[in-house]
């Protein structure tokens, strides 16, 4: 069985598009490191990921949040998003970048279901990427910033941006000609029961959609609106998985977790976009 580090080298070799964060030259394997012709070296750690951040960033997304997210994903509450992405992807093999991949659940689902697809996941949170490296797929996991991606121009046939901030200029740069951006963003009903439990009004749509349409052309889209019945345990995981609650203390989160609303709505836009100017 391949070690996590070997899996990363395999994924990096298949994609062949890693660019040195210092000088932009191609990075290739050199022992347990990656190195560029200008002698810059990047360590691949035993967990099977690269860190290209020049300084560690404090993230409000911690290991507890990603563990709760994983349980919510495993309960099937976001399976429809995978089906929607698959329906929007053109036929054929793909090189995917999941920008702001979190714990890697989407990328893993897509790579394990589609032989011949390869991919990379980048997230600024180390906790997220450490969790992603435990997944079965062979992917290039990178702790990095989606505003400055360590990939050559035109490297990917598709970029996924799921409930994550975007940097459209950077996405355009790393997409191959004819490549697609798949953007997943909230509809007005998204997590409305959790918002209500926190005393928040429903999500106001408009801003994300307007900015996306300014930067890209939506060529096809799907809307997912599902209300899931939730057990007390799953409600608790939703409370702990959402950034909506991240500024609350553990005590405050537990108080909301103790009052199960009985259901949670997942209302999302899944848009396939062209980025050519
Ligand atoms: C709501 S989570 C979504 C994660 C994942 N796409 C999912 O749907 O489970 C937002 C993610 O964006 C990441 N993120 C925020 N700013 C980022 C940046 N500048 N570069 C890379 N990742 C970023 C966070 O660490 C977090 O994992
Ligand atoms: Zn270099």
- The helix-strand sequence is HEEEEHHEHEHEEHEHHEHHE
Sheet of most strands: 8 strands, mixed
Q: How much β-strand is present in the residues?
A: 25-35%
Query: What is the CATH top level name?
Result: Alpha Beta
Classification by helices and strands:
alpha/beta
User: What ligands does this structure carry?
Assistant: S-adenosylmethionine, zinc ion
Query: What's the pLDDT, averaged over the residues?
Result: 96
| Overall CATH architecture | 3-Layer(aba) Sandwich
Core attributes:
11 strands, 277 residues, globular, Rossmann fold, 3-stranded antiparallel sheet, binds zinc ion, 8-stranded mixed sheet, alpha/beta, binds S-adenosylmethionine
Task: Outline the structure in words.
This protein is α/β, with parallel strands linked by helices. It has a single domain (4-186, 204-222, 268-274), classed as 3-Layer(aba) Sandwich (Rossmann fold). It has ten helices and eleven strands. The chain has helices spanning 4-15, 63-74, 79-88, 105-113, 126-132, 168-174, 192-197, 207-215, 232-241, 250-257, and strands at residues 28-30, 33-35, 41-43, 49-51, 95-99, 118-123, 140-143, 156-162, 175-186, 217-229, 263-274. The strands form two sheets. An eight-stranded mixed β-sheet has the order 4-7-6-5-8-9-11-10. A hairpin with a 5-residue loop joins strand 2 and strand 3 (41-43). It is globular, with a radius of gyration of 19 Å. The protein starts with a helix and ends with a strand. The mean pLDDT is 96. The structure holds S-adenosylmethionine and zinc ion (ZN). The site of zinc ion has 7 residues, from loops.
